[in-house]
Design brief:
Length: 342
């Protein structure tokens, strides 16, 4: 059973462009120039009940626009959308009772009242019975560890505390489908881990379907087996995360910590005829070597670097999902077409 069905979905916006100078401003009073911006370009995909799907892409790729169409906030320019068997923007009142939504940069809680009062208001809005509310929310509140926060106004909560309360608010009516748009933005590691564990738990317990958009690919790796990758409003990949790693994650990363400052030009000279890409680490004298052909080049690379420079430490790792996806977006249209083809 498909919870989400999208077919040839498109969303276009008209953007006003002003003319320069006083003369241009005067002309704009009578005639305006518009251009059409296509945020989402004829995308098609489906999501089955109980799936946890990562919806990823660069800024401006069309992720949030898609989520807003799937939740009924925006009306599509063209195409077909069915979510929980309903058209989101035509059957809105009935539809919103079947979904939960968390936008990382927007709040559904009332700013100046206690968290539990917001919960009670949402309980009335969704017409949840006292028995269902108590049975379900007792578990949610304990799992997310927000019981000490219930008496506090939302404005007095930290970002991590507020996001846990936002997630709980989205689940008051125990929806079968949950949309999460950047739910862990700006959160510390411990809060992220708590939210991830909770999402896994509700997915296993209630078979809750989750569509997750985020720039933090560790969230995707922890929660989702399937990813949908968007670029300039088009889907360039829809498949398993493992399949993406298998085809684009070949190779190794070797992290070198040098005893002295060293420039990229010096490293390139040491490894001049090897298939190696160097990246500066975030701390100290650390450089990361990406080796495309580890069987052929790795031993030679290590022996050359160790012979030429003082090494304090080194570690060998698989190429991360974040690095794979960054490479796909950075390598241009030919690479994206190749990703799309498989």
């Amino acid at each position: 059973m498909n919870v989400i069905e999208v077919e040839n979905l498109r969303k276009e916006f008209k953007s006003y462009s002003s003319r320069s100078g006083l003369k241009g401003a005067f002309r704009d009073l009578f005639t305006r120039n518009y251009k059409t911006i296509r945020a989402v370009h004829d995308i098609s995909f489906s999501v089955k009940k109980g799936e946890m799907v990562g919806y990823i892409g660069e800024n401006g790729a069309g992720k949030s626009t898609t989520i807003k169409m799937l939740t009924g906030i925006l009306t599509p320019t063209s195409g077909k959308v069915l979510v929980n068997g309903m058209n989101p923007h035509k059957e809105r009142e009935k539809f919103v009772r079947t979904i939960g939504v968390v936008f990382g940069q927007r709040s559904q809680l009332w700013w100046d009242i206690a968290v539990q009062e917001s919960f009670r208001l949402l309980k009335k809005v969704y017409q949840v019975s006292d028995q269902d509310y108590n049975e379900h929310m007792d578990h949610v509140i304990k799992t997310l560890d927000i019981e000490p926060l219930l008496d506090k106004p939302v404005r007095k909560l930290s970002l991590g505390q507020r996001m846990r309360c936002e997630l709980a608010a989205a689940l008051i009516h125990n929806p079968p489908l949950l949309f999460l748009d950047e739910p862990t933005i700006g959160l510390d590691v411990l809060v992220k881990l708590k939210i991830r564990q909770f999402l896994k738990e509700i997915n296993e317990k209630y078979q809750t379907t989750i569509l997750l958009t985020t720039h933090d690919l560790s969230d995707i790796e922890a929660l989702c087996e399937r990813v949908v990758m968007l670029d300039e409003g088009k889907i360039i990949y829809d498949g398993s995360l493992e399949h993406l790693r298998k085809h684009w994650g070949e190779g190794k990363q070797i992290e070198f910590q040098f005893g002295n400052e060293i420039e990229k030009e010096r490293l390139a000279m040491i490894t001049f005829n090897l298939n190696v890409h160097w990246i500066k680490g975030e701390r100290g004298n650390i450089w990361i070597a990406q080796v495309a052909n580890p069987k052929e080049d790795m031993s030679e690379l290590i022996s050359r670097v160790v012979a030429a420079e003082k090494i304090i430490d080194l570690s060998i790792q698989e190429i991360s999902t974040e690095e794979i996806i960054r490479n796909i977006y950075e390598k241009g249209e030919a690479t994206k077409q190749e990703v799309y083809s498989f």
